[in-house]
Specification:
The structure holds two protein chains of two kinds. By secondary structure, chain A is α/β, with parallel strands linked by helices. Chain A has 14 helices and 16 strands. In chain A, helix 10 packs across helix 11. Chain A starts with a helix and ends with a helix. The chains are: A alpha/beta, B alpha/beta.
Chain lengths: ~450, ~450
Amino acid sequence: MRTSWLALLLAPAAAGLLIAADNSVLVRNVDVHPVTGPEIHNGAVLVIDGKIAEVGARVAPRAGARVVDGHGLQLYPGMINAATNVGLEEIESIRDTIDLDEIGTFNPELRAEIAFNPSSEHIEVTRAAGITTVIALPGSGGRGGRGGAASPVITGQGALMHLEGWTWEDMAVKPSAVMDMLFPEIQGGGGRGGFAALLGGPTRTYAEEEKLYKQKLDQISQFFNEAREYKAAKAAAGPGFKRDIRLEAMIPVIDGQLPLFVRAERERMIKDAIEFADKEKVKIIIADPREMGSTGPMLKAHNIPVVLGKTFQLPMRDDDPYDAPYTLPNEFYKAGVKFCFGTFDVEFARNVPFEAAQAVAFGLPKDAALKGLTINSAEILGVGNELGSIEKGKMGDFILTDGDPLEAKTNIKQMFIGGREVSLESRHTREYEKWMKRP
Amino acid sequence: MRRILSICTLLAALGGLSGAETILIRNATVLTVTKGTVENGSVLIENGKIAAIGKNVSAPADATIVDATGKYLMPGIIDCHSHTAIEGGVNEGTLSDSSMVNIKDVINPYDINIYRALAGGLTISNVLHGSANAIGGQTIVIKLRWGKTAPEMIMEGAKPGIKFALGENPKRAGEPQGFFTQGAAAERRYPGTRMGVEEVIRESFTEAKNYQAEWKDYNDRVVRGEHPIPPRKDLRLEPLVEVLEGKRYVHAHCYRSDEILMLIRVADEMGFKIRTFQHVLEGYKVAREIKEHGAGASTFSDWWAYKIEAYDATPYNAAIMTRKGVVVSVNSDSDELQRHLNLEAAKTMRYGGMTPTEALAMVTINPAKQLGIDDKVGSIEVGKSADLALFDQDPLSNYSKCLKVWIDGHEYFDRDKDLETRPKFQQEKKQLLDKENAQQGQRTGRPAGANTAATPKEEGR
């Protein structure tokens, strides 16, 4: 009863669906930006049964297809935000509306997909900016203050979700896309206090902190060993084998199928994470790094991709260059590391194109920024054959705009997800329409 | 220590790079904001003021020439809601009315965020207390004169203000929960409801009016040649009397439409004016009342949903209020966001169809009007202070970056010079770290740089 008012506020996101009479759509007279190929001026895109059937300067009309005239508009792939908590958090300060950071250190069996609220207002708000797909992560990455876990390591499986659909099942593109992991770090200690001391907690020396860190790493290795032993026992199917859903969820990870989404801010953490991945022979993605340091060549050599966090951040240290966060994406680019963009939040998930544009202002080539919102994101998340570009055989996820979608002044005019047009209305536009009418 | 050393060097190198010289910025796209755009225009700076603007401006022989071909010149950006450069906490979170405390006393001119903000074109900040108290404290307007002392940063001729706060933040101490109660049990502090917040403000102004009357009576009697005992000086009530007398602006943090309307009615009853509603996320619902009161509205471009009173927010807020006749600015409330307010302003073009000039006005002339300094700054006009920001392209483009900033005709930021000095700073840092390693490494075995993370700062939102 307490929350019924909230339910009333959350108008179903899917109610805005506009379904074409025929399940094929032809968008013509439009400048197509395939991302993986050169721009097609005055081109066309045909979508049949949700998939792109044809792209080109000339596409033959198809009987029964809905025709969309894209005169004066640009067609881009729907953008992807590769790190969010969309669907799992509604209002940051109200714990009841948040499903992040479950209690426990190792929770690989938890699935963000099933807690993704298809009626969250953030879905419509995010897609209004031209974003069709997000990764919904089960952990906040230690943003703090919300969960019960003292120091979680594995928070669960992140899901790749379309921002359209009646249920989470409809919306899931890849239910288990990444395994969300918070890599341990040596906390600031060493006699000057550190954060713990500020809060009145005990002060530990660096040596003590390092010891705790190593213990944590051992604990993680032990957990991975347990998972391997479990896998072997399962394969052997001996008498007395009992199913363990927690360890079972780790099998795709230790098999190198499911990437660990390793949040590692500092150079040292990134190095440790690479070393860890080598040792455990698992696939990793480095997530939300705040610096690259000397890790570029290592990441490139190991073919480890990066999901970048916000470009709009303060530098980590007082004496860092003022533009350090702005130039970071270009550092990874120059090092030849494959990367894409995320925001690691909810209410600003829609601003991911601007995070990428800011990197362009400080040196990143424009096409690398766009790729970091489309094709690279799809490839890093293991859906390179389905999303991220305007190519035959891919899902019909695209936007029509009156300009560059990385510019705030550009308007996103129309959006298609899986070949179906999606409303760009949201709580925000509805308030606008309503209150402009107040006399 | 090494941090302080580095900052001192940075100050010496970048602060006050040049005197109040005569400067001609030539061949720029000049975005005056109030008088249109001058293509291939020039701006002459003399004695810290804008002396001439036009296509053909001649300069004295000794003028420094800045070739701005292909670049964009705009007025220095003004932030109507900032907590930057404050030493220590932003909240005197003990009393519901802490109007006796003054931001002026805690300005930290060494805050690196001043320089970082300059590098984004920001020149003026309205520095406020946080929102823990119904009446938070006295506020001031600073110019980001990096390298100068705290008193030198305070903007001349800018009327001081006082911060009010309504809604969830001031009532939070009255109903402690969540993060705020971790550790020791928090003691409840009045008020715990919006009704209590209203009462605190009304009660304080009732006291202030009594206090004002006592002093008037005293002064009248002195004039009559009597020798009365003066009333006891009250540092809490004096700034409120200044509000009643129009000598101090009220900047009121608020979210919901009901509390905005409430404060307007309390102000009407007590006989003072609200200068700006801050955040004012539901301002779009009571734009008519805000306009009738004569208040400005200083809002976020697109913040929402971080608490329930921010759930009815819409990024169209700035546009709706503008269309309903309110003077609207877009503010930062954040050391990070203050670095790119031009890009925040650009969002109002998407959300509500503001024109480029209307968008730019949200971070220049409009906040200047709200702070009562639009006769001095906020646009590129002859006679105004030479507070200017040069961008490599249209500052409303997400691909733009700031190259140079002048305040009162002094250059305070130059990207090329910043880039040039970096190797020197890196070398200096390395030397200091090596030295520290040599000394401290022997003592503790702790590697250098293990404790250099910037500490997160509580923002006022």
